[in-house]
Amino acid sequence: MSMKLPFFKNKKTETNTLNDLDNIPQHVAIIMDGNGRWAQKRGLPRVAGHKEGMNVVKNIVKAATNNNVQILTLYTFSTENWKRPKSEVDFIMRLPKEFLHTYLPDLIENNVRIETIGEFGALPEHTKEAIQYAKDKTKNNDGLLLNFALNYGSRFEIMRAIKQVMTDIEDSKLSLDTLDENIFSEYLYTDGLTDPDLLIRTSGEQRLSNFLLWQLAYTEFWFTDVLWPDFSEEIFQNALHEYQQRKRRYGGI
Ligand code: IPE
Ligand code: IPE
Ligand code: MG
What we know:
Blueprint lengths: L12 H4 L10 E5 L3 H7 L4 H21 L4 E8 L7 H24 L3 E5 L7 H14 L6 E8 L1 H17 L10 H5 L12 E4 L18 E4 L9 H13 L8
Bound molecules: 3-methylbut-3-enyl trihydrogen diphosphate (IPE) (2 copies) and magnesium ion.
One 3-methylbut-3-enyl trihydrogen diphosphate binds next to α2.
GO molecular function: transferase activity
Protein name: Isoprenyl transferase
Organism: Virgibacillus byunsanensis
């Protein structure tokens, strides 16, 4: 077990971790939605919601660690989000650096490993630099995997995989006969990761918005009307608890 720094330390550990340690979702994915509406409700610019949402990320990383979740995948920016006004996109692209500047030392102390899925190369230089630094610094950590879906789109991911598969077949690195679901999965950004067990979406929307279409085939979904900046460790805990009551059948009986 790694040492825990104060912001990870829970005064009320008993109430903030699950009593039933069975059946904890190994991989939790979250569509963190509702930042803009949270700000607008308060008469603030939309970006104020993104800023507030950033601090919630820290709390949920803590909660995931405390509850023994192994992988936390956070939908941070979709390939469709480039459609937004440039000022909003620019603001969002500066948040990873700000987040890491504030929290990276604690994340390192708590053995968190940082990774991303999505088209990393197309991000602004300053965003890439900050995240790459964090990836390098945490690459040997074996605690929670904190996986940011950044410039991520599932259809693009699948198309990209198909193109790579075809190239590998042409180059005789892969044969059509051996290609199966497991091998195909290795061509996705999520290569090496188990599929999410639990998907949470905040803000009342009940859609996937191009998130992990392949990987969510048998994932349990959990929706809440709470807007992301109002999301809390308690609500996260409720979602985990409800997950524990679900019966996953995978088509069986
Ligand atoms: C989620 O909140 C954050 C991103 C998509 C980057 P939104 O910005 O989508 O907030 P709403 O849905 O407009 O309220
Ligand atoms: C999904 O939220 C993307 C992220 C949370 C990063 P959106 O707000 O972009 O989704 P739509 O447009 O409501 O489907
Ligand atoms: Mg939204």
